[in-house]
Design goal:
A hairpin with a 2-residue loop joins strand 2 and strand 3. Helix 9 packs parallel to helix 10. The chain is of the alpha/beta class. The strands form three sheets. Strands 1, 2, 3, 4, 5 and 14 form a six-stranded mixed β-sheet that branches. The protein binds zinc ion. The site of zinc ion has 5 residues, from loops. Zinc ion binds next to loops.
Length: 377
Amino acid sequence: MSAFTSSRYSAGAKWIHTNCSAPLENHFINVVDGVVDSVTAKPAQRTVFDFGSECQILPGTVNAHTHLELSGLPAPLDVPAVAGLRSMAAWIPPLMQFRRSELYNAENAVAAAFLRQEVLSESVAVADIVPLTLNIQNVPAPKIPVWLPFGELIAWKKEQVKEKMTEASRCRLTGVSPHAPQTVCPELLEAVIQRNVPVAMHLAESPEELELLQTGGGGALFGVMKNADPDYEPKNVLLGKRPLDYLQLLAHSPQAFIIHGNYLDDEELRFLAAHRETLSVVYCPRSHHYFGFQKYPLKKMLDFGVRVLLGTDSLASSPDLSIVNEMRFTLREHPEIPVETVFRFGTLDAAAAFGLNDRFGTIQAGRPARFAFLTGR
Ligand SMILES: [Zn+2]
């Protein structure tokens, strides 16, 4: 709460969601020197910020998936939708074009993202896929408490694997991110598992990806890959016929984040639920909406017991980097899901999945005074 200059204050709101008890109505969080001292029905400090009847205060948010390197984009890519659906195969070429343009500078984009208003005002941690070319030393220290960089790994030929893994070990990374089924060969995935670090992978994102897997290399995504490399050979890249083949391998990593999972089937969701201690799915609501994918199986995931987190994805498919806005959007899209559950996706559940729940994810005495605010509904 950088706006609060006083070292002792009480912050009040209609609802305070501590994640330690049921929501507290008309309560105050009392803060001393940047640390929560207590939560009480009456303000304990003389300086009082009352956010009023429209406001809900939550613990600071954890963004479980983004690509800050793309934060130089002013708006999501302008790709036409056909019958309400945007094609990944149509979206990837302008993205690659942006990455090759003068407008793209990964270090500057990450630094600028750290200073965005919505990030500063609500985030305690951001899990970020970074290209291996990003020079972490050139990125200024983030003003948010925790930056979790995952090195992006792309190799569709086994000859590239050793070099990529060596590159990834040079940087100080939280984990690695084998990009997606069409861009990583089985040898790379095996090497990733052997490294025994947290993993984030895009999986079951689009119908085109499922088609590529099911047909062993058919559909529009194949065209994209063939354009990138005329020697692209699906049979040497694809691990299996369905996302489950990937999940079974990723389950061997100490912690794996399945990005999107828009098109996981029941068997795959049950597999995720059975491995919920180490496998989480990251729902990116507004990015999902941008592409116009089928309704997200959120209710089913929760019924099965899948651990769900929230991500914004990048500014190439999302209007901003606010998890509070993702929560708001999720509540509108999935009114059947309890509010408290949605709030936990982006706070306590995510903090636990990233091993940060000793500091973040709750509002309680002794924890840093980092909060997120949700006004209106
Ligand atoms: Zn992504």
